[in-house]
Write a structure and sequence with these properties.
241 residues, alpha+beta, Arc Repressor Mutant, subunit A, Chorismate lyase, 2 domains, 3-stranded antiparallel beta sheet, 6 helices, 34% strand, elongated
Length: 241
Amino acid sequence: MDAEADAKGVSLYQRILSDIRGRILSGEWPPGHRIPFEHELSAEYHCSRMTVNKAMSELARSGLIERRRRSGSFVRRPQSQAAILEIHDIRTEVEALGLPYRYELASRKQRLAADDEDGFPAGTGLVELVCRHFAGAAPFCLEERAISLAAVPEAADEKFETAVPGPWLLSRVPWNAAEHTIRAVAADEHVAKMLDVPRHSPCLVVQRRTWGGDDMPVTDVRLTYAGETHSLMARFAPQAG
């Protein structure tokens, strides 16, 4: 145990660490928030600056804060990596950051596809969804998805108010092919509002189409992330000569 402890015998280092981590993960201290200076925390907790520095160093190592020389320490935006060749679960991405996950349905409607729209044959019944995924208190990903009712007729009866579309589809429809398109875009008014970022800020878009049996299109989804919060990763091995 550290030499400094509170009346209950809890290490002050652990208490400072827990308090600051809790404020960040709860959203009380959002990304960009300046953490009190070390001398301010030292006075608040009645401990040495060495104890505060130890806690701040641990928070920086875990990626929750960034320390800027002469400016202080600030809450970092979550940084996520996704494998570009995998169909991944957004909840898993968020929880890997140590943040609580939340899903929100913004809109749902049904309509018929226009002429070969987005790879769906003309006249195909579609369920269109607009959803948001949150990491802590902040929007993490905007999901805009079309589901083919020819491939997944039960989607007509699913409201998707609590059921997250990606895992819901994977649990019901086997897929045999997927196509990813990745590009950088500037946030328009709609994206900026949904992701709570400034208009024209850089965003990363992952567009994915999947097909099932008999090459029937199943879904087309557009996942938009704030550019500074997300990166894509792929690992390759050389082919046998």
